[in-house]
Please model this.
Amino acid sequence: MGSVEDRGAGRILATIVFTDAIGFSRLAGINESRALELLQRDLDGMRSACERHDGKVVNTTGDGLMMMFGSAVAAMECAIDVQNQIVERSRTLPPEDVLHHRIGVHLGDVVIEGDTVLGDGVNIASRLESEARPDSICFSRTVSDVIKNKIDIHPTYLGPRMLKNIPEPVMVWQLYPQKDLRSEPERAAFELKSEETGATGAKGALFMIGSLVVLAAIVFAAIKTLPHLNLNRTSAPLAAASLRKTKPDAPTAAPQTPDAPQDPLLDSRFKEMHDQYEFAELVSFLQGAGEEKRPGGMAILQRYQELAAMRAWLDDALRNIQQSSPLQASIEDPAASGQEVSCLVYTSAGGLTVDPGNSPQLKSLWSMSPASIINIAVAAMSSAAQPPAEATAWIDAFKQEYNGQAR
Model:
């Protein structure tokens, strides 16, 4: 596959890379000329890396670049090259002379019109850049599938993410520079500092929203030497239940943690995400704790990855259920002490509509009880022409996860 410089106009498959300087607006407000000098230094290095990897700089986005590559492998190698250069530079320069960047990479359809590149491939890459943490690279499943076994990297799977103005969930992986020797607490502390000091405009709002997640990562990193939270099903029917105090008469095969959780903050945060069915966030939360390195940890992560996939599938399936051909499912009625009522379920202009026959109501699927969600999922699978092969296993996993749990 040749350089993208060889491509003509029209629709093509290409890998798009977006970069962004963290907190640049804040730095420019303090010393604009110096901030612009530092930014130009980094952008020049990115342009050189792009050229070395047979890419093309399509546009300058203010404090970043948009680049296009004919190869996903070349695009990722360029992104890794850029982040490694910045890490190397940070070892010899004073902190105030180092800018930190985040990068998004996606392989998809794009449309070339003159010097402009448009399309979903561009939009998704841009949103992935917004998902990335300082100094990291976020990339999609299309990129992951191509580079697998071609580049020796060890990214973290973040699960399916709903990106702004992108109708379908996107599977996301995150990678930090291979030459980043900071410990987990040091990296998390830097990210929190970046988010606090760089909180300006729309990007600042995103940083502030993410600060609680970073705090959780810091706490997790600090307690790694303590007995880890027990997420094993042998001591409780739910992963969330293992974070709570074990009842004296609760059956347990081989308890691995003390009766009380090690940290009430972590217990509370885990329970909150679990009760709100935030499975993709749970995966990130547990990966931040290094759960995959512990006995049985990979199985726990896989369970929540499967539940995240179920949630993404069900959200997508319900978008196609219209009033003309609704689902029929039993929904628990809070006003009737949780008694199940047969309802028509469909998507309208206002959202998900649940109609027991006399009073249609707009509902949020993920605010319903586990039993109601299971019934809707079964109905959606039955009505689908070609449901995912994993749908039955997903529903069974969800049923097991929330067996007997009231919300």
User: Anything to note?
Assistant: The chain has twelve helices and twelve strands.
